Amino acid sequence: MIWIDTIVQGILLGGLYALFALGLSLVFGIMRLVNLAHGDLIVLAAYLILVLVTLLGLGPFMAALLAAPIMFGIGWALQRLVLNRVLGPDILPPLLVTFGLSVLLQNALQEAFSADSRRIPAGWLETSSVSLGPVSLGLMPLLTFASAILVTLALQWLFYRTALGRAFRATSDDPTTASLMGVKPEAIFAKATGIAMVVVTIAALYLGTRANFDPTIGPARLIYAFEAVIIGGLGSLWGTLAGGVIIGVAQTVGAQINPEWQILAGHVAFLVVLLVRPRGLFPRAFD
Amino acid sequence: MALLETRDLTAFYGDFQALFGVDLTLQEGETVAVIGANGAGKTTLMRSVSGLIRQTPGMVRLDGREIGALPADEIMAQGVAMVPEGRKLFPSLSVEENLLMGRHRRKVNGPWSLDSVYRLFPILKERRNQPGTALSGGQQQMVSIGRALMSNPRVLLCDEISLGLAPVVIRDIYAAFPRIRETGASVIVVEQDIGQAMKVADRVYCMMEGRVTLSGRPDELSREAIHDAYFGAAA
């Protein structure tokens, strides 16, 4: 029975990793940009929610609702003013710029909030749980996983059912030909990063309410996100969700065997998938 | 006043000059063919007019308004649509989605819509949900032409639409041109296939080494003059 509980907890944990990864997957899928500051942007959004909760006395979900458009604006401006200038056939400039941005964000957050750990208070939700037979599930992990599925569905709908999504895919395929259709690739990229930052805000909500965070934890979140994206197959949204779940289950199973193995087990699972399926589980057929 | 005009148009790839003072006019409702051998500068001319190669102001005009310095998306919004060399369909989009991309920016009411494109190329309706790149070369070319028509363009630029296609397929593609002309679109067709170009064009420009070497109505141009303009007098 303990193993069923372990696997279910792992699946729910995978929802959080999927939320970390979906924004990264979206940005990579459209502009082939690996944003090394992605984890730090999650932490930035967590601090933004914390500030809104503290200053305005809002609940965490309402604060996230307010933070989302602010993060969209930050993402839009970041892409428009910085990242669009370094995108091109050479992948090194955007890697260096986002690495620099990561360092900048960590230091700025330390200046503003100190190195102390913080947590977004979620009240009764933090300790609430529901029982499903022999398995007891925390309400926050359940909400996290449900949000991951909803975000995946929403992104899937956006990509495959809207004119904007069509433009995202066309620009991802061939920005030059897309411009002949009247698409402005720089504007498309800015919207994509803005939307990725909205996803980042949702990830930050659950990161900040479920665990302590401080300005330096971004890179570790990036690694989980990156692994989930690679496991799922670059640019595949459902694959990213599956990737998050695989890391989550591997971590809880590892921890069940030996608590010291939790993090290691996630990385081992990533390496195993990479060995068996180098292009991930659900790679886009045309890549 | 010409609908589209290039005046003393030059173009460079780095230090390499590909066009040398090209003058070309396209009147409303007219079809103009640009012929020439490989490397003559035909595609560069199309890329310059469509905005893929940015020009200095004054070199390209649409309805008398300067457009040469505009980016490709702005020129498309003004009503210049291009069927690029090699079809360039979006691999992650279905046939219908590829067609709809033609209306992404320029949503002008006119003779062309999904229905009218499907009437022009009925096979595309049957294949509407398949990936565009899963079609045969000729069908892909139909998608590419249909996609450009979806914006109801004032000027349609067709770059080497017969390239790599079997003669029977080329004939099918060109069979659509009378219908396209009926809708009032003005067309520039870039071709290596002189015979096809002569059939559809009101006027012909022949290019060699980045320069216009001959122009005129097809019935005014002798085979010898075209041969000399195409390959050079010494050939």
From TrEMBL, chain A:
Keywords: Amino-acid transport, Cell membrane, Membrane, Transmembrane, Transmembrane helix, Transport. The keyword Transmembrane applies. Its main location: membrane. One of its GO terms (biological process) is amino acid transport. The chain crosses the membrane at residues 6-29, 41-71, 130-159, 188-207, 228-249. It is a multi-pass membrane protein. One of its GO terms (cellular component) is plasma membrane. CDD domains: TM_PBP1_LivH_like (cd06582). InterPro entries: ABC_transp_permease (IPR001851), BCAA_transport_permease (IPR052157). GO terms for molecular function: transmembrane transporter activity. The keyword Transport applies. It is found in: Cell membrane. Belongs to the binding-protein-dependent transport system permease family. LivHM subfamily. This is Branched-chain amino acid ABC transporter permease. It comes from Histidinibacterium aquaticum.
TrEMBL record, chain B:
One of its GO terms (molecular function) is ATP binding. This is ABC transporter ATP-binding protein. It comes from the Bacteria. Residues 4-234 form the ABC transporter domain. Belongs to the ABC transporter superfamily. Keywords: Amino-acid transport, ATP-binding, Nucleotide-binding, Transport. It comes from Histidinibacterium aquaticum. Pfam families: ABC_tran. GO terms for biological process: L-amino acid transport. The keyword Transport applies. The keyword ATP-binding applies. SUPFAM superfamilies: P-loop containing nucleoside triphosphate hydrolases (SSF52540). CDD domains: ABC_TM1139_LivF_branched (cd03224).
